[in-house]
Amino acid sequence: MADRSTSIDYQRLFRALPDNFLVIGADADATILDDTHNHAAVAMKSRESVVGKPFFEAYPIADQNEANVIRESHEHVRRYKQPHTMPLIRYDLERPTEQGGGFEQRYWEATHFPILDDNGDLLYILQRSHDVTERHLAEQHRLRIQAELAESQERARFTLEALPMMVWTTKPTGEVEYFNQRWLQFTGLSMEQLRDHGWTDSLHPDDRERVMQTWQQAVQSGAESQQEYRLRRHDGQYRWLLARGVPRRSADGQITMWVGGATDIHDQKQMVQELLESNEQQALLSDQAYQAYQLAESQRETFHNLFMQAPALICILRGAEHRYDFVNPLYQQLFPGRQLVGKTVPEALPEVLEQGFLDLLDRVYETGEPYLGNEIVIMIDDNDGTPARQMYLNFTYQLFHEAGQKAGITVFAYDVTDLVQARKTLERLNGTIQ
Fold first, then answer.
1. What is the C-alpha to C-alpha distance for residues 43 and 131, in angstroms, rounded to an integer?
2. In the 8-state DSSP scheme, what is residue 251?
3. Range of the domain at 324
4. pLDDT value of position 345
5. What's the average model confidence in pLDDT over 154-164?
6. Same domain membership, residue 294 and residue 333
7. Fewer CB atoms inside 10 A, N or C side of the chain?
């Protein structure tokens, strides 16, 4: 049978291979010798424009680090005459003018294979490349989403730990999953000891059955729950708490978790009890006063969801420069159209510098002593040509620590503008009448 190998056009066969191949000379310049049709298409350069040129002249690379990766791979094949797969590199493709020009971002994986002669000497280097841009960008997107989710979860955890109240969350069926540090510090117990129904062991024996029955009714009905009960503190004293649980629902109305908070009202409860015992004639009045306190306390301290909502103006200022790390929607509404998070107080609110608020923040950060402001005037400039708005706020500046070091200041504020203005109006009317 006749040998038909001489009739095969190997160059035509090579160029038609269904992959991205490039033939490079063994010389130090890595001269381009040939490529497949597929390679020419993905590289967006004709064979005629690259053949005979040194590799980096035919395919210039702006990033010196990426160029060094390719040179090292070439050198590896020359030295050891073994295949070498490069790490992932970025090489952007320049579109021809007829295709609109400009560059397309591309990421590549490539392997260089040695082509040897009969004596084992290197004749050529064969490059096989794969465009992995879509896969790489998808992985980068996944990692970015994963990092954003982790950051969101960390912010939520930090917010819960910074809130000045005892916070808990439960499963839809009512078993506790989480207590914040204030609850753990109050009881002196670990999360493992309190989880599920373990926290009920700290309830006063006279309150336990009532509390559990009321809580199960709330879980079954999906209604908000509010109770007063005695909880054993770490020193063994039972103290009265006011607790409220709120269900969090999905878009289809199903309860996905419960969020709750509790406040120590023992002193107020005891004061009311002493008034009742000392003067029965004042019983009704005392009860009404306590109920009014109870309602105000409940309204002030109830928050609506785990992440961003709270019934107060809340922000967290990090570091000695007082940089906004967290603001809730109510706080943001004071400054519509402004970017707060990521900026320092002077950068975000330059109008407050002359009003003394920065000095107060510096003092709290340096001394560690909280500042309580009552009906403090603040002038807010909306930057729309209108006069500055005057508001009255009740607020607290409180230093918080992380890992035993000063970390920043939490701000909890309430807008009392309407109340102050109403009182001033009443005072003017009384002055006019008199």
1. 10
2. T
3. 313-433
4. 95
5. 62
6. no
7. N
Structure pTM? 0.41
The rounded distance, in Å, linking the Cα atoms of 203 and 226 is 16
- Rounded CA-CA distance 176/199 in Å is 8
Shared domain check, 102 and 17: yes
Measured CA distances, 332 to 108, 162, 313, 324, 375 (Å): 45, 18, 8, 11, 20
Residue 93 in tokens = 């493709």
- Pair of tokens at residue 222: 């999906």
Which burial class, exposed, middle or buried, applies to 33 when counting CB atoms under 10 A from its CB (0-12, 13-18, 19+)?
middle
- Residue-wise pLDDT tens digits, 283-322: 555 566 556 455 544 544 444 354 366 667 889 999 999 9
- The total of structural domains in the chain comes to 3
- The verdict on 278 and 332 lying in the same domain is no
CATH number of 386's domain? 3.30.450.20
CA 259 – CA 256 distance, rounded (Å): 10
According to the model, what pLDDT value does residue 33 have?
96
| CA–CA dist 16, 340 (Å, integer) | 59
Question: Do 116 and 175 lie in a common domain?
Answer: no
The alpha carbon of 238 is separated from its chain's Cα centroid by a whole number of angstroms, namely 38
Question: How far is it, in rounded angstroms, from Cα 308 to Cα 413?
Answer: 15
